[in-house]
Write a structure and sequence with these properties.
five-stranded antiparallel sheet, eight-stranded antiparallel sheet, alpha+beta, globular
Length: about 450
Amino acid sequence: MSSTASGKSGTWRNWGGNVTVRPAREVLPASVDELAAAVRQAAEDGLKVKAVGSGHSFTAIAATDGVSIRPQLLTGIRNIDRKAMTVTVEAGTPLKRLNVALAREGLSLTNMGDIMEQTVSGATSTGTHGTGRESASLAAQIRELELVTADGSVLTCSEKENPEIFAAARVGLGALGIVTAITFGVEPVFLLTAREEPMPLDRVLAEFDQLRTENEHFEFYWFPHTGNTNTKRNNRSAGPPQPVGQLAGWFEDEFLSNGVFHAAQLLGRAVPAVVPTVARISSTALSARSYTDIPYKVFTSPRRVRFVEMEYAVPREALVETVRELRAMVDRSGLRVNFPIEVRTAPADDIALSTACARDSAYIAVHMFRGTPYQAYFTAAERIFTAHEGRPHWGKVHTQDADYFAGVYPRFGEFTALRDRLDPDRLFQNDYLRRVLGQ
């Protein structure tokens, strides 16, 4: 079974296992013309249309009972322009394949998230990001995109062509049309040195601003029920490459981070009382290490333990206070949280519905092992996030609606007005978009 659909009875299920839907029709277009024809046909048949990538969103953003468009055949690199330093890639291309292909060409994206299973259009449309002092989300690295709109026309959007659509469609939530190709800015491949190191939470919070400003990419994982974190600093390096050794890599990344971690999750789900003990052991299992490699081998790692996730972007200056409130909430709640909390940062950008739109941001992600009740924990965390005007990741669990977003996104009205213009009949509507964008 792929990470997208089970396909047995035409039922589609997301990676987290928390969204299931049966579309009326599934279409696998082999070209942009075929995709545009499928959009026009759906409109004629009175059916809604959604494109779905690898199913890595925990929200129902890609769910439809109408026509589900799968971009599996729209993959690969269309063009590399070494003068402009851009690469144009078909929308259904998995990030993993893009990263490997770019590396073969001696090129790289500037920044990326921590997994690469998603399609390029799914990842950018939901605002997927990594961590960075100056370098921002995947969508902020887009130079041009191709969009099939509700009437089946194909638009090219960039800062020069259809600039108002470009300002919104880079994080378009699938609401403005179906992205068929993306042009990213790239650079010559470079080396990153990662330094992973355990550090007490109190020290990380006290030195957070310094850690963020001294490193190009800083993030940390805090283990609830403990005062322990694991920090990761990635900085450009002159080399030489010193990849993680095969055995050490297998031990840290597969055995500890996936195998033993999975066993610990199963134990915690079965016997919640042991969670604090397991957290203390887990948080001290990973030792400090350093390695130097090409970017995608440093930024990304395999995630085989399935979970459900909520992530909010808060103003960067509110990060320390927000984490302290989360810690106090976990300590007094009696909740048993078996998954580390991940903290990353991003500089402000100019994309209408980017979680970093017009403000320097810090991201706080809370997770629960798949199959463990998560509602009480997520509800309590969400209360803290929204008190700081947090913006939820569009592809992760949250309960906010259009009224809330109108208050935390300065350009929310600009986006909804553009949607009224491009999709007046709401061909690309689904329940999730009805909630987050309004009617």
